[in-house]
Amino acid sequence: MNFIIKGSVVHFWLLFILFFYFMSVARQLILTERFARYPAFSKLKITHFSPQKVILQMPVESSHLNFQNGLFGGITASLIDIGGTMAIYAKQDEEKMDNAGVSVDLSVSYLNGGKLGDLLTIHSVCDKFGKNLAFTRVDILVDEKVIATGRHTKYMGLGNYKAESSQ
After folding, report:
1. For strand 54-59 and strand 145-155, is the pairing parallel, antiparallel, or unpaired?
2. C-alpha–C-alpha distance, residues 113 and 38, integer Å
């Protein structure tokens, strides 16, 4: 009898863990689809997703290059934006995931260049998620070498926003 009770507890915890694993995978698929609608980011993939860190990867393609055949700075800045947003999503509860916030500050330091065929790895962390603002830090790497780093601040108080009447 004692064996059956212990087995039931093990089954419960196994199902519990599997449920949250599949919820995490579903969440990642939903978030990936949000950015896949933009052709430049259609190959952006989530490789790690947790409240502590989000890791994305994307190959550099010809559409990401500037006229000197280097990684276009606008793509890099957009990846800082996307990485910061994903880190914020990772900190939010499931029911609040529709609130991506509004960018209020974005800074990028370009440390090195990327080229066609490079695999970009984007490491994103949400340092602080307050009542109204979220602060993120993003590094973009190629082969363990940081090519760009950035900070992204977003206003998150949209849930409390009420438009004033025009009367």
Report:
1. unpaired
2. 23
Give the integer Cα–Cα distance in Å for 86 and 124: 8
Give this prediction's pTM.
0.74
What backbone phi and psi angles, to 5 degrees, belong to 105? -160, 135
Burial of 165 by CB count in 10 Å (0-12 exposed, 13-18 middle, 19+ buried)? exposed
Name every residue whose Cβ is closer than 8 Å to that of residue 94 and which is 6 or more positions away in sequence. Answer: 23, 27
* 19-47 burial code (b ≥16 CB/10 A, e <16): eeeeeeeebbeebbeebeeeebbeebebe
Tell me the torsion sign for CA atoms 35, 106, 75, 54.
negative
For residue 61, pLDDT beyond 90:
yes
Pairwise CA distance, residues 28 & 8, whole Å: 30
pLDDT recorded at residue 89 = 85
